[in-house]
Each structure stands twice: as structure tokens, then as C-alpha cells.
Amino acid sequence: MVIILIGVLSALGVGLFARSSAFSPLLAAQQLESATLLAQQAALAGNTSQNTLTVTSTSDEFLFAVGSREPFRIDSGGTSLSVTGATFPITFDYFGRPETSGNTVQFTFSGESTFRVCLSPLGAIYRGPC
């Protein structure tokens, strides 16, 4: 029974790995969430040299930078990023709130699938429509 179950899961799961570009928007959204939380934690700790978030893209990769640290790079895989409500860099105050003039910021990663990430004026970062 276990062997049959493993066989079925393997057959169904292989399609997920056939096209890596299908994962690119999800990976980019997850990395954005992670980088945002890192910048917020630095701001809450009073580290004003590491409390900014910058995302840039080249023709083949996204670069996620927090403060002056070396940016984390991921392959864009044909994914694009659009941002509404703010421009980079986004700076966080000592309460962890983004300094975006009270605007909600929406990040949209589009490729074979689309993922939206929202940053509220109070600093909450969540996936979905704003």
C-alpha cells in the first residue's frame, strides 16, 4: 500500500518540477517577505543602517537588499515585478512601519503565475490582494 501511495505521489509531483519558471513568482514573493521582515527587525532593534529594503531586477535575476548588506539574488525566470504605493528604497521606522506616506504598498510578481504581496502602513506583510 505504501509503495502504491509513493508511486502515485511521485507521478503527480513530477509535473511540479518540469517547469522551474512556474515557481519563480512564488520564490520571489517569499524572498520579498523575508527581506521585508529582516529590514523591520533591524528597525525595531534600532539599527538604522540596516532598516531599508531595496528590490532591483536585471534581465535574468532579482536582487533583494536589506541595508548595506550584500543582496540576495534569485533567477527571475521570466518573472516581472510591479510596485504601487511606494518607490525603493523603503525605509522602516523604529516601530517597524514603512515610511510610505501612509500608503499600502502592493508588489506584484507576474510570470506563469501571479503573486501579490502587500505591505500595510503599519508594517504587516502578507500575500494576497491589498
Tally of DSSP β-strands:
8
Output the structural class: alpha+beta
SSE pattern, N- to C-terminal: HHEEEEEEEE
Mean pLDDT: 86
The figure for the number of domains is 1
Q: What is the helix content?
A: 25-40%
Computed over alpha carbons, the radius of gyration is 17 Å
**Number of helical segments with 4 or more residues:** 2
Strand content: 25-35%
Shape: globular
Cα(first) to Cα(last) distance is 45 Å
The largest sheet is: 4 strands, antiparallel
User: Runs with pLDDT <50, length 5+?
Assistant: none
Instruction: Describe the strand arrangement of the main beta sheet, using strand numbers.
Output: 3-2-1-5
Spell out the blueprint of helices and strands:
Blueprint: H1 2-18, H2 24-44, E1 52-57, E2 61-66, E3 72-75, E4 80-84, E5 90-91, E6 105-110, E7 114-119, E8 125-127
Antiparallel strand pairs: 1-2, 1-5, 2-3, 4-6, 6-7, 7-8
Textual characterization of the structure:
By secondary structure, the protein is α+β, with helices and mostly antiparallel strands. The protein has one domain (23-127). The chain has 2 helices and 8 strands; from the N terminus they run ααββββββββ. It has helices at residues 2-18, 24-44; strands at residues 52-57, 61-66, 72-75, 80-84, 90-91, 105-110, 114-119, 125-127. The protein has a 4-stranded antiparallel sheet, covered by helices on one side. Strand 6 (105-110) and strand 7 form a beta hairpin. The longest helix is centred in the N-terminal third of the chain and has 21 residues, at 24-44. It is globular, with a radius of gyration of 17 Å.
